[in-house]
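User: Predict structure, ligand adenosine monophosphate.
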Amino acid sequence: MSDCLFCRIVDGELPAKIVHQDEEIVAFHDVSPQAPTHILVIPKEHVPTLLDTDESRAELLGKLQLAAIEIARQEGLDEDGFRLVTNCLEGAGQSVFHIHLHLLGGRPLGWPPG
Ligand code: AMP
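Assistant: Predicted complex:
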């Protein structure tokens, strides 16, 4: 989608600090990091929210998690831990409507989140 920020990153129209890319997934540093490591893991396919997924996307959702876990290892977060978060809809803080996992780590992460 041409008006989707993350689709434009996937298409190379917007710059991003990409840390991982494969056939289905791209991961890049968040432009406004909330932790020393803050990486977004997204599908290349445009899917607006978690509510737009169903059984047909089970494999893709699993691959997103596995990619995020591998990146966490690469970033050295497998010792102290990390968090994977997906915000769904504005009420939960979603601001970009192309699903993404936030991979956060590198500092103590409080619970519950705000
Ligand atoms: P959310 O609010 O959960 O939808 O997360 C969207 C995230 O995208 C926020 O953490 C933003 O800082 C981040 N973001 C917005 N624009 C960009 C961009 N051009 N490059 C990297 N991250 C971005």
